[in-house]
Design a protein that fits this description.
mainly alpha, about 270 residues, about 0% strand, Helix Hairpins
Length: about 270
């Protein structure tokens, strides 16, 4: 571990890219690496899990080094903080003589009580219970939470109207070429679109994941067909790329229709 910490210190001293990084600029990489860990675990490949956990650990080490340079804390403080928290939140393990024979339900209640004590004196919001998660999921959970107290659009038509309002403001920001306003208005549009999905009973996270899977599948088929025709995608015009895209789209639709027909036929035979 000390070798990794020393390597990180040296990178901050000598590598131009590492020197330019800030805690804010690295945040997106931590999120990406967390997703990579999830994908690796899902793959079942232990070597991939090991490597991706290492990449995620690097983000912790990198952030700790930058805060250490500010005199705030270092990696050892991070380790000590989580160690103290685990011991504090598991008195049934580390003070077993005082908390003998607890059921799983008792442990859950005890955990919540300890967390409540830790938060005493801190500002409280009803949104504090919403965990940090992918942005679309957070937006959906926040909207559901505040809807419980009536802070919500009465129907999908009003939610859609708000989306159209935000899109108009985005167009104005784009026309004004103000990057900060564009970023803010684009975020407003996404939040409003999630709201429309929620009112329609659609999970924005699942909808986007489905679209991503569909795009990946179509594009992979595009690449296969281009290779079969000895075409280089990078040298094709937009028109030629669109033609390959439409071919892939049609082929996948035909496959899906064939699979559905086959499944229906088997069901009728049963």
């Amino acid at each position: 571990m000390e070798q990794l910490l020393q390597v990180m210190r040296e990178l901050r001293e000598k590598c131009p890219w590492d020197q330019q990084q800030t805690p804010e600029s690295l945040t997106k990489y931590a999120i990406e690496e967390a997703y990579e860990v999830e994908a690796a675990v899902r793959s079942g490949q232990a070597d991939e899990v090991r490597d991706e956990l290492g990449d995620l650990l690097l983000q912790v080490v990198f952030q700790s080094q930058m805060y250490s340079e500010q005199g705030a804390f270092d990696f050892h403080d991070v380790v000590q903080a989580i160690t103290d928290k685990l011991i504090r939140r598991h008195p049934h393990v580390f003070q077993a003589e005082q908390f003998a024979q607890l059921s799983p339900e008792d442990v859950s209640v005890l955990w919540k009580e300890i967390k409540q004590k830790e938060k005493q004196g801190k500002p409280r919001s009803r949104l504090d219970e919403i965990k940090h998660a992918p942005a679309l999921q957070q937006a959906d959970e926040i909207q559901k939470n505040v809807a419980k107290i009536g802070f919500d659009f009465p129907d999908v038509a009003d939610a859609y109207g708000k989306l159209e309002e935000e899109l108009a403001e985005l167009r104005e920001a784009v026309a004004g070429q103000n990057s900060d306003e564009i970023l803010e208005e684009f975020g407003d549009c996404l939040f409003s679109l999630v709201n429309v999905g929620r009112k329609l009973g659609v999970s924005s996270e699942m909808a986007l994941l489905g679209m991503i899977h569909k795009f990946r599948t179509r594009f992979a088929l595009m690449e296969d067909r281009a290779e079969q025709q000895q075409l280089n995608l990078e040298s094709l015009s937009v028109t030629e790329l669109d033609q390959l895209w439409e071919q892939a789209k049609l082929e996948l639709k035909q496959r899906a229709a064939h699979e559905q027909s086959t499944t229906s036929h088997r069901s009728s035979m049963d």
